[in-house]
Amino acid sequence: MDILQKIVNDKRIEVSLRKQLIPIKQLEQSILFKRETISLSKKLTQSSTGIIAEYKRRSPSKQIINHDLNVFDVAKDYEDAGVCGMSVLTDGKYFGGSLDDLLTARASCNLPLLRKEFIIDPYQIIEAKAYGADVILLIAAILTRAQIKQLSELAKSLNLDVLLEVHNETELNKSIMPTLDMLGVNNRNLKTFKVSIETSKQLSNLIPDDFVKVSESGISSIDAIKTLQPFGYKGFLIGENFMKTDNAGESAKLFIENLKK
Questions:
Q1: Is 116 a catalytic residue?
Q2: What is the model's pTM?
Q3: What pLDDT score does 233 carry?
Q4: 152 catalytic per annotation
């Protein structure tokens, strides 16, 4: 069984437990549920750099990335660095994240926040809104077309942006629908964990222009971004590159300054 399937199986158990702990009604009464969201897709279309910087402590492929950086400081520093948005991992078991990280990031910055999570249930979208997210991630590899439709429609009804992630042409073809804002191409092969930006190049022509194109995984150099910009990519999700340093915000700042040159 591949890692994604394992994560999804664990996620089902986790979500059913969370539903028992905190009912939807309670989530809808949270203060953040009523806040006006900030659109990441709009920010990306207006930016010349398009950096979405991630906060993640560890991952199944790399194990520990950084356990020393505090999310409050990183969010503030990312904002100062001039990133377009911030991605916050909320999966605990595999990535060492939590919804509290999202809440803390929200308290610390005015960036559009992406809840980076394995979303399989409408409950998680209500939860994202209640904890201060502006954007949700849907992963085509773990959802049917009907699920993508249901989840993206719910997200749009809550004024959340939707980033849909694909790995190949089959996933892309089943997923395209008007309730998505951004299409993210993940350059990581989920079976081998190998990363190649060729994936983003190959799929770029198949993504209609109505969607903001985002490239994810394996983007650690200015060259990679400059290579992908002519293919129409406006967003670049950078996960480990900043987090593996002692000062994620400073690394992001230098990266963006060099990218602008």
A1: yes
A2: 0.96
A3: 98
A4: no
